[in-house]
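Can anyone check this?
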Amino acid sequence: MISEKLNQKERIEQAIEERDAELGEIALKIHANPELSFQEQKAVEWLTAPLIQAGFQVEKGIVNLETAFRATWEGTQGGPTIALLAEYDALPEIGHACGHNLIGTAAVGAALALKDSCPDLPGRIVVLGTPAEEDGGGKIIMCQKGIFDDIDAVMLCHPHKKTMVLRGGLACVDTTFQFFGKESHASSAPEKGISALDALINSFVAINTLRQFFKEDVKIHGIISQGGGAPNVVPGYCEAKFILRASTVKELDVVRDKVFTAVRHSAEAVGARVEVSEGLIYAERNNNKEMAMLFQRNLELMGIEVSDPPKKGGIGSSDIGNVGQVTATIHPYIEIGDVSAHTAEFCQAAGSEKGLKALNHAAKALAMTAFDLCVDSDALQRVREEFENWKKKRNVEV
């Protein structure tokens, strides 16, 4: 049985190799044409075209998201449903500096390789196109619409400076503060004005004062997106954008309450008014350890060394955290070079030969792990039991 599985995995790897040039071309086209969140029309067309050609049932615009899609192929009935997640949105100004061109293409490549090499695979393979990971939370909307409710296991593979399978993720939320004051001539009639900018600056100071009273894992970072129009006019409107992060959604609620209170008092102190608006809340990551170990063994089967995740710090946030609250999920990483995400250097690496090699490795590991879950009922049961036990524990704690 072990020998047969290894032979089948060799066929999966060969199927990826046969599509390597095709996958590289797709990844580079997406890289050269970066599209922002919810605007990824070209990427969707490029990613779904080979799936349609291979006979997958492709639905575009699911859950009323124009750039979300679902592509489904069923081998033989009776097996699990495994979802491979495609991300493909870019960042403003620095393009694919998070490597989503590689993530989306790896998911498609893995699905194609499974169909090419395992026509009688006992299970259903679903590629889910999930837009707006960077800004908007496409997966959160898809969770709310029940897209993940009947899926047994979910995975994607993200490029990074080193290969890891169990790196965590913080809960987070995007927040916009709009400050409303009253314009006046700053020199001849300052007493008639109310400075929205002072309200904003006071808010930054108040938030910085709070930092010493937050837990170590709390992260707060913000920018002034509008700071007034002219220095001789008391600013009547200013705006700041923040991202608030904490270890869990529950801890994030505490942070939000303290920050919002501080900002409101800062505005009131100068007679201004503030309006607070928030994006969707990204949940903390719930990595399924059993599935992560399957993924790690497949990486090691290819001779790829896996590093331990950081003991503390060094983590961001992703809307896959919300998926992990619904079903068994992993979010491993594949090395593309000694570069930091969300930088011009990372963007360059995502379009490099090393980036395309990482794409090849990610697609193979995704496909082989999906294969394991479909053919090894004991492995699937361990994955599902871990998730169900986590869910019971969470419900008791709530």
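Reply from J.R.: I decoded it. The two ends are 43 Å apart (CA to CA).
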